[in-house]
């Protein structure tokens, strides 16, 4: 319910000039948005499951009058041990494959007609933007930031 409230607030109250995850605009942003929602749903389900199991364990195995305080018999090699090893591995593999698919799709995205690729080089105190030579021959724009101390 809280997730739906956050989504409703994020999509209804916003300034169109302010970028937000709830209104993707760029070419790969829709697939990144879908991946983010998928990861959010998977983690919400995991949280709900773990929380409910913890509440169940706290209620069922609470200390009762007449308990001797000793540990119950320990049982090893059961299916629960296999489940809590295999299931997280499967979850990580699914999330990895979904993320790899989105990264591969966004890396191979084609430019829209009429757009140019601009290369940005970040240095310690300045940025250099290189424009394509076909559109702007030999054009490099440099931005420096100077800090005055003292």
Summarize this, please?
This protein is mainly alpha-helical and 150 residues long. The chain contains three helices and three strands; from the N terminus they run αααβββ.
Notable traits:
3 helices; 150 residues; single chain; 3 strands; elongated; mainly alpha; three-stranded antiparallel beta sheet; Helix Hairpins
Commentary on this structure:
This protein is mainly alpha-helical and 150 residues long. The chain folds into two domains: 1-64 and 78-110, Helix Hairpins (Orthogonal Bundle); 113-150, no CATH class. Helices cover 48% and strands 9% of the residues. The chain has three helices and three strands. The protein has helices at 2-12, 29-60, 79-107, and strands at residues 119-122, 126-130, 140-144. A three-stranded antiparallel beta sheet has the order 1-2-3, with no helix packed on it. Helix 2 runs antiparallel to helix 3. The mean pLDDT is 79.
Which secondary structure elements does this structure contain, and how are they paired or packed?
Blueprint: H1 2-12, H2 29-60, H3 79-107, E1 119-122, E2 126-130, E3 140-144
Antiparallel strand pairs: 1-2, 2-3
Helix pairs in contact: 2-3
């Amino acid at each position: 319910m809280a997730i739906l409230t956050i989504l409703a607030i994020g999509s209804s109250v916003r300034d169109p000039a302010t970028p937000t995850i709830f209104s993707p605009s760029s070419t790969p942003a829709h697939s990144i948005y879908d991946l983010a929602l998928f990861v959010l749903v998977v983690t919400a389900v995991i949280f709900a499951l773990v929380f409910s199991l913890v509440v169940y364990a706290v209620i069922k195995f609470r200390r009762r009058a007449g308990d001797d305080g000793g540990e119950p018999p320990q049982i090893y090699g059961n299916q629960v041990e296999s489940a809590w090893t295999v299931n997280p591995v499967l979850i990580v593999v699914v999330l990895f494959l979904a993320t790899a698919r989105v990264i591969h799709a966004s890396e191979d995205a084609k430019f829209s007609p009429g757009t140019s690729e601009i290369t940005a080089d970040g240095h310690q105190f300045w940025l250099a933007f290189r424009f394509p030579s076909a559109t702007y021959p030999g054009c490099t724009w440099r931005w420096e930031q100077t800090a005055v101390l003292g």
